[in-house]
Design brief:
alpha+beta; 7% strand; 4-stranded antiparallel beta sheet; single chain; Muramoyl-pentapeptide Carboxypeptidase, domain 2; elongated; two-stranded antiparallel ribbon; 6 strands
Length: 380
């Protein structure tokens, strides 16, 4: 019995030594591997940021730094006025240049409240990318949203504003319609949305529909904010507009949602230490876009499904990568109503023009007259 106990003791001791030896030898290797992987990740992130900054500087010809240094006395961040920034503040005090037009306008692959492709179908690429994901997420919850009015040129906003003044008077117009240069629609980062339950119109009642409630609670997850919320009319200068959403990036949108701030309040109260870095959102977008492009490439190489299984033009199909139009959309004040055989929920325009392309060369379809009731472009 004594020999058996001794034998078990020796075996157990040998197993313990082997286990400890394995752990001592292997642990440094694991830590070393993790350090190498961490360094590689850091290099990737730094390289991504460097590439993004270079690309944006090449596109727009300006430094990507968004704010000047803060007021040393107040320690509050300065207002972003760079029209290319996703954090730009646009209102009656902070105007956009008359000739400003985004260089990366595309048509998002979402449902619209109208047939065909018009100036208001377009948005900036990053805003369109996340709008597709916002609409897709809503649809998974049986919430069907529809785009009503996206990008709007300075000229078109001027025509809308002047028409409203003629019909409503200046005081009433200023409460619901932006003067040319003060409209967020000109940034290409804003879109008005509605739903069938609201008659795809733009009214306060949309905010009380299932779709409006879902949008207000979830838009920030995809980088959007309800720009003119209820109870903030004196701060924003506009009546409550539950349909008007603006892309600012997920980081800033979440910050504003949690603080219950408007964009005006963000620049009024945020200290330097609390400043949101929107570069991170741009880098995240570039990564997700590349991932989507690789996925699309793989799908295009795979065998095509049978016609019965395909739902490419179905309004309920998943969003596809946005593509740039052949030419920049041209602003017009009127057009005769054209009939199209069916709604176009998925639009895939041709490649984007070179930076030197002029808006005057555009062949994009003109918008319907701004007084047409179905367009609902008489507001904001």
């Amino acid at each position: 019995m004594k020999k058996i106990i001794i034998s078990f003791t020796v075996i157990f001791a040998m197993m313990a030594v082997a286990f400890v030896s394995h752990f001592v030898v292997r642990t440094p290797n694991i830590i070393k591997a993790e350090k190498v992987e961490s360094k590689e990740d850091t290099k990737d992130i730094e390289q991504d940021e460097h590439d993004v900054i270079e690309e944006l500087e090449a596109d727009y010809g300006h430094e990507i730094e968004e704010e000047a240094s803060a007021d040393p006395d107040a320690n509050i961040i300065k207002t972003v006025t760079n029209p290319n920034s996703i954090a730009v503040l646009v209102n009656r005090r902070h105007l956009l240049p008359e000739d400003y037009e985004p260089k990366d306008l595309v048509v998002p692959d979402v449902k619209f409240s109208f047939y065909g492709t018009y100036e208001r179908s377009y948005m900036r690429e990053i805003a369109a990318f996340y709008l597709e994901r916002l609409f897709e997420a809503a649809e998974k919850h049986n919430v069907i949203l529809k785009g009503v009015s996206g990008y709007r040129s300075y000229e078109r906003q001027q025509a809308i504003y002047e028409n409203n003044v003629r019909n409503r008077g200046k005081k009433e117009t200023n409460a619901v319609s932006a003067k040319p240069g003060s409209s967020e629609h000109q940034t290409g980062l804003t879109i008005d949305v509605s739903s069938d339950s609201a008659g795809v119109s733009l009214g306060e009642s949309f905010g009380y529909t299932t779709e409006g409630i879902w949008l207000a609670r979830n838009a920030h997850k995809y980088g959007y904010i309800v720009r003119y919320p209820k109870g903030k009319e004196k701060i924003t200068g506009y009546d409550y507009e539950p349909w008007h959403i603006r892309y600012v990036g997920r980081s800033l949108a979440t910050y504003l949602y949690e603080k219950k701030y408007t964009l005006e309040e963000y620049y009024r109260y945020t200290t330097v230490d609390e400043k949101i870095n929107t570069k991170a959102d741009i880098i995240r977008y570039r990564k997700q876009k590349k991932k989507q492009e690789r996925k699309d490439a793989l799908n295009s190489e795979s065998p095509s499904p049978s016609p019965s299984a395909s739902s490419k033009s179905s309004p309920s199909s998943s969003p596809k990568k946005t593509t740039a139009p052949k030419n920049s959309p041209k602003a017009t004040a009127e057009i005769k109503t054209t009939k199209t055989p069916k709604p176009s929920a998925t639009v895939t325009p041709k490649a984007s023009p070179s930076p030197s392309a002029k808006a005057k060369q555009s062949t994009a379809p003109k918008d319907e007259d701004e007084t047409t009731e179905t367009t609902d472009e008489t507001v904001d």
